[in-house]
Predict the structure.
Amino acid sequence: METQQQGINGKVTTATLLVALGIIYGDIGTSPLYVLKAIIGERPITETLVYGGISCIFWTITFLTTFKYIYLTLKADNHGEGGIFSLYASVRRYGKYLVIPTILGATTLLADGIITPPISVASAVEGLTIIPGWEHLPTVPIVIVILSGLFFFQRFGTQKVGSAFGPAMLVWFTMLATLGFQQILHHPTIIRSLNPVYAYRFLVEYPHGFWLLGAVFLATTGAEALYSDLGHCGRKNIRITWVGVKTCLMMNYMGQAAWLMSQGEQAFLQGRNPFFEMMPQWFLLAGIVIATVATIIASQAMISGSYTLVSEAMNLNFWPRVTVKQPTNLKGQIYIPSVNTILWIGCILMILYFRSSTHMEAAYGFSITIAMMMTTFLLAHFLYYKLKWKGYLVVAIVLVFGMVEISFFIANVAKIKERWMFLFFELFIFMTMYVWYYARKINNRLTKFIDLGRYIHQIKELSGDDAIPKFSTHLVYLTKANTRHQVEEKIIRSILAKKPKRADVYWFVHIHRTEEPYTLTYDVSELVDDKVIKVTINVGFRVQLRTELYFKIIVQELVANQELNLHIRPDGSTRYNPEPDFRFVVLEKFLSVENEFALREGLLLNAYFFLKNLGLSDEKAFGLDKSDVEIEQVPLVYHAIEKIALKRNGQYQTVA
Amino acid sequence: MENDASKQLYDTYFSLTNRYVTVILRNGKTLEGCFVAFCRGDEREGEGYITRWHLVNGTDDGLLHIDGFDFRAGTYINQADIAEIRFHETNRTMKFL
């Protein structure tokens, strides 16, 4: 099952390791900027707090990041791809209920996209205030300018600067390790803090120690990114780089702890950040610049990850169809303007509302605990059904990780209790996914199919009936029917009812979204020789749909192989241009006024059609050129009104 | 899939030439006619192959069974509500548990 795509994923070279370093470690790698500061807060420095905090960080990273993500979760690849939607695509056949954890996980990951950039950048920029003379520097406008610039430049892609991300992160991790090492030399006994006994004392003996887990958890918030970017970097590259990254991170955390201990027992931080405080004065400005660059790279990875997440959500019918652009030639790089705008507004609101990284720490972590719990739940299905692990082993894994993650979740709930505003954004994302998914299910459930064989004779007759003006030479319908002899009733109705559509060749094209990420194949079957043709195009869930282009290639191949004769009858419509014309008909549903709803269905369907109007039109979503497309509106009748008490008054009257 | 009763009904039904059937529902009601359309289930999520059938009175004449005002003729039947079906061509009966 541990399959990998060819390319970067399978190889391990210095270059691939640098790429991995630049893409996936931004979030977890910039955590030292705020974690220890959040743990200490306004509490007096004591050995139990500092040693215990470091011990908790170490064992949290070891348990959740190393064991759960690096060892276990990276096994759960879907043809080399990772992330919650890939995991869902692998296991969805094993339970309908898996939809809800998937939506919850994806919601919280997306919501994380509006808090990671502001907290990371703000933490770095706030370092400027410890430079003598700059104590009162307003950092909020600087953070807003940096974030706005970052979101503005998304439309141009990262092809030109992307190659610098890896080396820049290498500089960052080298700096983390060096700064930490320097402090550890002054207080070498800090290494003892790796002993789990300190973590136990921290949680049990330190007053309200358990609730500090909310701050400890911030050390592992980027762990989900390791899994989401599995496809970009490959398992081996992630596992190898993690050894170095974890070493650098722990050296820095221990360095900060050593600096704290050097301040003496019962001292207070008084708002200072140990990360910057342990830097030599001469290096401070350079250190802040390096930290800011690292946080920008972390934010960039988070934004790109959000685009990928929404793109996958669209392909798996969890998100309304929106415009997706490819800003560069780089494979897999996409830009989604609407997501960019939502994230930008969200990030700016976050920084304006919270003002500083210290306040943001209260809201940070909550979402990720939920995402992690949902991943654990889906992962258990993968281990049991796909990897065929023993049931008791899977249950044990779920229980152990579940207990740890629920503990972190409880600590984070307590932390966020005064920051509920943040949850509105999550509710918006969750409702969008929930409505889109379930309303589409209702929609699909009501789509009627017919046996195409019943209408073949009529279609052949219509095609040869010169009394009816020709609609087009080739008439193409998109169908959801995945079998050769079926097609939607509404398509037959479009061809035969009201104004019949005469064409030389009728095509029924079915787009099959595969559970593999990058499939792009097709099958053709002729139901009537050169008259009625069914095409199935198999498209992976990570591939952007370009139906018209695929269709053109298929026709060219069929003609070249002499499997299709583009015979054009010499009637008036082709006298001036011998080239065949292709016309796509897209059938757009609308909610019929004939419907009467139960409350849930009514709300779902109305919300669905509202979202649909906000999203991309069907022809754009299918990748069709507008000039070749005919849009037809068809009513979606959910429950027709059956009993209408309509009575006639009086007799039929005629004018004399 | 092999044990899916709706798929077995689908395969049997569309292999017939004379598609006139008698349908007995679980509530005891009897209907006669031909299936002209059907709604598919989501097999990836464990639903049956067919979830609903569209039955019209009379023989299968290949028409659309939609009037000029877009109103549908006939009845919709949930697959789960079908107790048994008698195929007039073969005189065989398919029962659903």
About this structure: The longest strand of chain A covers residues 502-514. The radius of gyration of chain A is 30 Å. The CA atoms of residues 464 and 504 of chain A lie 8 Å apart.
